[in-house]
Amino acid sequence: MKPRLPALLVAAVVATAASAWPSQAATDNNAQVRNDYLLSCGGCHLLEGQGSRAVPSLADTGRIFALPGGREYLGRVPGAAHSPLDDQRLATVLNWVLSRFGHTTADPPYTASEIGRLRAQPYLDPLAARHRLLADHDGNDGNNGNDGNDGNDR
Amino acid sequence: MSRLDRWMENSSRALARRSGRRGFLARLGHLIAGGTVAGVAALPLLPVARGQASDESPGSRAAAPPEDIEGPQGDPNHCDYWRNCAIDGFLCGCCGGSATSCPPGTEMSPVTWIGTCRNPLDKKDYLIWYNDCCGKNPCGRCFCNRNEGERPVYHPYRNNDINWCAGAQSQVYTCSTAMIIGLAVEGQPEK
């Protein structure tokens, strides 16, 4: 039995390493967009888009995108409209966020011209806009998910 | 019976000499750390490490920068340490924590800003996550105020004057960390 423990450990470590590290090609293909995401969005939405008490989770983007007006909403929220990214890079990041965190596909994908048009109309009250969007769909006050607001700043 | 006792005692002592608990942990640590490329742990133990290990991270195999830098640029508790290039606050390494962990009794702020710093050894830019630690009085040791690539407060995604503890349970700022979350494809545009 003695030699079995190291062998199992080695197997576990190798298996974990293999699953943790992707192919170099996949890393290269997505490195630029993830770099842009981390530098412009990741500080608040966090590394995997999970959000926190203070900031919405990007896992909700798939659901929101599917709602009437949701596509436009995602291009007008402060994080998008005031992003330091140019229109093309922001469009790429939004498409990536929807795929990566929202588990949906922007069809058709956001384009630079669409993003330029949307971010020119930023929301003055994004939280109210979110509640309206969800209320129109859910038939309630729309405050039924993690909106990233703990209620202290209302 | 006494012979059996002696045999048991001798066996136990021999086993203890050969395989102390610390020795086992050390070998396990070496196995985990040494079984991977570039010395990066294969078993990601921290949330940040898990994020780094995700399949599309810009930093992955190349994310472990060379750290054998001599002088202040290689000392995490010195303001000149290369990762501290845009920090503004007390270095957690002087406050009971480290450059990557908070002191006991404090909480890492869930929101912050991310910038890049250049490692002087390999001349590459790394994504740095400037998380504040929150919940105890300001540490007061190793104050460091470097603002490379920092921007005014109306650019919150590049500002170090904001009390990022606003996202934590306690809004009392204690100290700041500077964690690598990956190799940057390019430096932040403000540099």
Q: Classify the oligomer.
A: heterodimer
The value of Rg of chain B in angstroms is 21 Å
The radius of gyration computed from the alpha-carbon positions of chain A, rounded to a whole number of angstroms, is 19 Å
Alpha-carbon distance between the termini of chain A?
63 Å
Classification by helices and strands of chain B: alpha+beta
Low-confidence stretches of chain B: 20-61
Walkthrough of the structure:
The complex is a heterodimer of chains A (154) and B (191). Chain A is mostly helical and 154 residues long. Chain A is built from eight helices and no strands. In chain A, helix 2 (24-45) packs across helix 6 (87-100) and helix 6 packs across helix 7 (112-119). The longest helix of chain A has 22 residues, at 24-45. Mean pLDDT of chain A is 79; it is low at 1-28 and 141-154. Chain B has three helices and eight strands; from the N terminus they run H-H-H-E-E-E-E-E-E-E-E. Mean pLDDT of chain B is 79; it is low at 20-61. The N and C termini of chain B lie far apart (78 Å). In chain B, a hairpin with a 6-residue loop joins strand 3 and strand 4 (125-129). Chain B is of the alpha+beta class and 191 residues long. In chain B, the strands form three sheets. Chain B has a three-stranded antiparallel sheet with strand order 2-5-7, with no helix packed on it. Chain A binds chain B through residues 6, 9-10, 13-14, 16-17, 20-22, 24, 26-27, 30-32, 34-35, 38-44, 46-48, 52-55, 83-84, 100, and chain B through 28, 31-32, 35-37, 42-44, 47-48, 50-58, 60-61, 110-116, 127, 129, 155, 157-158, 166-167, 181-182, 184-186, 188-189.
